[in-house]
Design a protein that fits this description.
The two termini are 39 Å apart. A two-stranded parallel ribbon has the order 1-2. Helix 3 runs antiparallel to helix 5, helix 9 packs across helix 18 and helix 10 packs across helix 12. By secondary structure, the chain is mainly α.
């Protein structure tokens, strides 16, 4: 099986990177303008649009902004981390400062994918954590592994994890993140006050009606993005989603390509995949889905994977217990 990137692909990528569109990253600069322009364009017209429509549109814009932050932390559109950080520092996503998201996500790229101890974006638990969790929490973990549960519950899990991590660091005497949090919360306070005073959108509505649903939309992208099986390449999905989803998630649905080549900009991921689609699907053992609707149809109310990582399941009885929760989730 071909190892990626091989010499031929390196040559193709080097040639593509010399193209003025890739070299200047003009599509990403246009994306930055479009994301900020649409977000603040909707917000400043909230009274004319009405709050229900404003919430829907701002949710889409905020999800788009989260996708933009993902591009920024991977070195696009510039190779200057401080400039990219400046472009992604606005607290439009509310729940997590850009710098902390960057740290956690880059750790995800270095980790063994899906490992419950080392991968900060894993949805799996080890046996001990599962057994020690209260029954109601185990039910919630099981429900989270359905598409409906991922949409409804994952934002709450994410927010609780962010708060728990921040408080845990402070309790352990690690205060290094406090300046980041202070700047983020100060900027968020200004943003919420502006939305309420000048746009007529209450702060609570921004939090519950925009920022939470934006995490729900982002959770659709990460649903079964990785699976706990086989070699590293076989753990990342190729999701050949429709144009709307690809634009919202900036082609991150071609997830194996992104993990292979995180330096490739969002607008080139589909091109890279389509040139070698057969090879990519061979490398990930056919881990392929034709859009998010397929996940929804198959796993709306059914678990896509057990809660406990297969390498940490402890005993066969856990599989029986997990299967029982699956039927109740």
């Amino acid at each position: 099986m071909t190892t990626y990137p091989d010499d031929q692909q390196r040559l193709e990528l080097a040639q593509a990177a010399r193209h003025w569109l890739w070299r200047t990253e003009l599509p990403t600069w246009m994306l930055v303008a479009a994301v900020y322009g649409s977000w603040f364009g909707v917000a400043t017209h909230a009274r004319q649009l009405g709050l229900p429509l404003t919430c829907v549109l701002l949710t889409l814009c905020t999800t788009w902004y989260l996708s933009l932050q993902h591009e920024l932390l991977h070195g696009h559109p510039t190779r200057l981390p401080w400039l990219n950080a400046l472009l992604g520092a606005a607290p439009l996503g509310v729940w997590l400062p850009y710098a902390l998201y960057r740290r956690a996500h880059l750790q995800h790229h270095e980790a063994e994918l899906t490992h419950p101890h080392t991968d900060p974006e894993s949805y799996f638990l080890d046996f001990g954590a599962w057994r020690s969790a209260p029954l109601v929490l185990r039910r919630l973990y099981a429900a989270r592994n359905t598409m409906a549960g991922r949409i409804l519950l994952q934002p709450a899990f994410s927010i609780a994890s962010v708060v728990g991590d921040a408080l845990g660091r402070v309790r352990s005497g690690d205060w290094r993140d406090l300046p980041v949090w202070a700047a983020h919360l100060a900027a968020l306070t200004v943003l919420l006050a502006w939305l309420q005073r000048d746009c007529g959108m209450p702060a609570w509505l921004m939090l519950a009606g925009v920022a939470y649903p934006a995490l729900s939309l982002a959770a659709i992208r990460s649903f079964q993005e990785h699976r706990a099986t086989g070699a590293d390449a076989s753990r990342s999905v190729i999701n050949d989603a429709g144009l709307g989803w690809r634009l919202l998630f900036l082609n991150n649905n071609f997830h194996l390509v992104h993990h292979d080549l995180p330096h490739v900009p969002w607008f080139a991921l589909a091109w890279v995949y389509r040139r070698r689609a057969h090879d990519y699907l061979a490398r990930n053992d056919g881990f392929f889905v034709q859009g998010y609707r397929e996940w929804l149809v198959r796993y709306a109310w059914r678990m896509v994977a057990p809660v406990v990582h297969p390498r940490f399941d402890g005993m066969l009885a856990l599989r029986i217990e997990t299967s029982g929760d699956h039927g109740k989730a």
